[in-house]
Write a structure and sequence with these properties.
about 325 residues, Jelly Rolls, 6-stranded antiparallel sheet, 6 helices, 22 strands
Length: about 325
Amino acid sequence: MDTFHEAMETAGVFALWERDTHEPDVEKPRSWSWQVMDPLITAAIGQTSMAAAERRVLVLSDPSIRQGASYGACGNLAVNLQVLMPGERARPHRHTMHALRFVLEGRGVTTIVEGKRCVMNPGDMILTPGWTWHEHVHEGTERSVWIDALDVPFQRYLKNGVFEPGPAHDVATLPADAAFSAAGFSPAATIAMPYSPMFRYPWEDAVQALASITPAADGSRRLRYINPTTGGPVMSTIDCYLLALATGRDTTAYRVNSNSVYVVIEGEGVTRIGETRTTWRKHDVFTLPQGNWISHCATSRDAKLFEISDREIVRKLELLREEIAT
């Protein structure tokens, strides 16, 4: 090291011209096969009890995007697999991170969010927005597994990760989910909120709405989960979609500078993410890092994908860029 660079190091500075690049950091696509994850979930049950653990969670991590003590799955998103067994209870807590649950298998679990009881059946999405009290109770007879998705990397970057254990107190009074169950109607006294006051999005309702959508030119149907008080995303930092694919047809390629994680609900297929070709089947999870050209193709009937995106973060900063192939 020469004298100039030694002096810069001592002063805590560096020469911009030696490091400057106009190319953004690029994450590589990652995938987690259910065939691999299922036995790990089974093993995790024997490794810890709910008396000892806050949550029995396996974190889907990409070490290349480590944020402090937490790992992210893609961009501003962290994704986990959580399992609860019959008779178990995950005690109440709250945190500043926005989170959602998407149920993969099992019945009998209820998530209690700000005092509202949300049944968890396969395909249901349950919201636990930032700083809402939530807990999980299993009163059924079979293993229950669900996806957790949180904005942990984003919150960690802002040094905003605050956690409070229960018991719950100062619980908010919110309208019942049923008050928003009919399209086009909401309680007259409802005010716009930064997150949806409807915490449970049942699978049967999502499928019915999806089937009513006119297919795009490529045969696909895409549904957005919304906050009924604003018409926008369910939470301010996390946007969710449901995609149904036409068998054997490539979707129109697109690219965007936000990040997504996909969960395979039904069917099989392949997704092209830049130069990467990811094959998938039921309950697999894979990432779509920003900046890649994306195209999906179902190789079986009834393929459906659940998308979790940090698009809203980028959009609200007025940095969103989207392109569609012509």
